Amino acid sequence: MSLTLFYTSVSSSVQIKKSQDKIKAVLESLMIPFIMVDIAQSSEDRETMRRICGNPTALPPQLAHGDVYCGDFAAFENAIEEERLEEFLKQ
Hints:
By secondary structure, the chain is an alpha+beta fold. It has a single domain, classed as Glutaredoxin, CATH 3.40.30.10. It has 4 helices and 4 strands. It has helices at 14-29, 43-53, 73-81, 85-88, and strands at 3-7, 34-38, 62-65, 68-72. The protein starts with a strand and ends with a helix. The model has no long low-confidence stretch (mean pLDDT 95).
């Protein structure tokens, strides 16, 4: 199983873009391996993200470890603040 960052390459929301960029930058700086899945390229990937999240209207960015939901951007930031990122990412 690997860590997956669900993101979108097409968004008019500056907040979504900033959130996606921050998650990517943090994971890369900590050398945590992950794959990126662009939900804008496939409705199947979008539905997979929403199924894993358990929310039919979930928006990116979302993180999952295999089929286990980790959380959204707010949860990611909280995990960093509380110094429990590894636990949050289900590593």
